[in-house]
Known about the structure:
Blueprint: H1 9-20, H2 22-34, H3 43-54, H4 60-70, H5 75-86
Amino acid sequence: MEYQGWTNYETWLIANWLQNDEGLYNAIKDAIDENEDDESFSLGAFIRDYVEEITTDDNPLKSDIISGFLSSVDYDEIAESFKEDLKWPDYGFQTKSIKKRKINK
Protein backbone atom coordinates (compact mmCIF):
# COMPACT_ATOMS: atom_id res chain seq x y z
CA MET A 1 0.00 0.00 0.00
CA GLU A 2 1.46 3.36 -1.06
CA TYR A 3 2.54 5.73 1.72
CA GLN A 4 3.54 9.40 1.37
CA GLY A 5 4.33 8.87 -2.33
CA TRP A 6 6.54 5.82 -1.65
CA THR A 7 5.82 2.16 -2.42
CA ASN A 8 4.93 1.46 1.22
CA TYR A 9 5.46 2.63 4.79
CA GLU A 10 8.60 0.52 5.23
CA THR A 11 10.28 2.09 2.19
CA TRP A 12 9.26 5.58 3.29
CA LEU A 13 10.61 5.06 6.81
CA ILE A 14 14.01 3.72 5.72
CA ALA A 15 14.35 6.45 3.07
CA ASN A 16 13.38 9.07 5.64
CA TRP A 17 16.10 7.91 8.04
CA LEU A 18 18.75 7.64 5.33
CA GLN A 19 17.96 11.08 3.92
CA ASN A 20 17.62 12.92 7.22
CA ASP A 21 20.44 11.51 9.34
CA GLU A 22 23.72 13.17 8.37
CA GLY A 23 25.89 10.12 9.06
CA LEU A 24 23.63 7.73 7.13
CA TYR A 25 23.21 10.20 4.28
CA ASN A 26 26.96 10.71 3.98
CA ALA A 27 27.59 6.94 3.96
CA ILE A 28 25.31 6.58 0.91
CA LYS A 29 26.82 9.63 -0.77
CA ASP A 30 30.35 8.29 -0.14
CA ALA A 31 29.40 4.92 -1.65
CA ILE A 32 28.22 6.70 -4.78
CA ASP A 33 31.47 8.67 -5.00
CA GLU A 34 33.66 5.62 -4.39
CA ASN A 35 31.89 3.51 -7.02
CA GLU A 36 31.20 6.02 -9.79
CA ASP A 37 33.38 4.14 -12.28
CA ASP A 38 32.15 0.65 -11.37
CA GLU A 39 29.42 -0.31 -13.83
CA SER A 40 28.53 -3.38 -11.79
CA PHE A 41 27.80 -1.28 -8.67
CA SER A 42 24.19 -1.50 -7.58
CA LEU A 43 23.22 1.38 -5.30
CA GLY A 44 20.01 -0.39 -4.31
CA ALA A 45 21.93 -3.52 -3.25
CA PHE A 46 24.47 -1.39 -1.38
CA ILE A 47 21.69 0.40 0.52
CA ARG A 48 20.01 -2.94 1.34
CA ASP A 49 23.26 -4.44 2.66
CA TYR A 50 24.11 -1.26 4.59
CA VAL A 51 20.69 -1.07 6.25
CA GLU A 52 20.79 -4.77 7.14
CA GLU A 53 24.26 -4.32 8.64
CA ILE A 54 23.33 -1.36 10.85
CA THR A 55 20.07 -2.94 12.05
CA THR A 56 21.51 -6.34 13.01
CA ASP A 57 20.53 -7.40 16.51
CA ASP A 58 21.63 -10.38 18.62
CA ASN A 59 18.17 -10.82 20.09
CA PRO A 60 16.35 -13.42 17.92
CA LEU A 61 12.92 -11.83 18.39
CA LYS A 62 14.15 -8.36 17.45
CA SER A 63 16.11 -9.81 14.55
CA ASP A 64 13.03 -11.57 13.15
CA ILE A 65 10.89 -8.44 13.50
CA ILE A 66 13.53 -6.26 11.85
CA SER A 67 14.07 -8.79 9.05
CA GLY A 68 10.34 -8.98 8.37
CA PHE A 69 10.08 -5.21 8.21
CA LEU A 70 13.13 -4.82 5.96
CA SER A 71 11.91 -7.48 3.52
CA SER A 72 9.18 -5.04 2.40
CA VAL A 73 11.54 -2.16 1.60
CA ASP A 74 11.98 -1.18 -2.07
CA TYR A 75 15.71 -0.41 -2.07
CA ASP A 76 15.77 0.41 -5.79
CA GLU A 77 13.21 3.17 -5.19
CA ILE A 78 15.40 4.62 -2.43
CA ALA A 79 18.46 4.42 -4.72
CA GLU A 80 16.63 6.31 -7.47
CA SER A 81 15.58 8.96 -4.97
CA PHE A 82 19.17 9.44 -3.82
CA LYS A 83 20.41 9.76 -7.39
CA GLU A 84 17.72 12.34 -8.16
CA ASP A 85 18.23 14.29 -4.92
CA LEU A 86 22.00 14.40 -5.31
CA LYS A 87 21.63 15.28 -8.99
CA TRP A 88 24.41 12.87 -9.85
CA PRO A 89 24.95 12.14 -13.52
CA ASP A 90 24.24 8.61 -14.57
CA TYR A 91 27.44 6.76 -13.79
CA GLY A 92 26.05 3.58 -15.25
CA PHE A 93 24.88 2.38 -11.84
CA GLN A 94 22.71 -0.66 -11.99
CA THR A 95 19.52 -0.42 -9.99
CA LYS A 96 18.90 -4.08 -10.50
CA SER A 97 15.78 -5.60 -9.12
CA ILE A 98 16.75 -6.76 -5.68
CA LYS A 99 15.42 -10.13 -4.74
CA LYS A 100 13.87 -9.89 -1.32
CA ARG A 101 15.32 -12.48 0.99
CA LYS A 102 14.73 -13.58 4.52
CA ILE A 103 17.64 -13.09 6.84
CA ASN A 104 18.31 -16.00 9.16
CA LYS A 105 20.45 -15.01 12.09
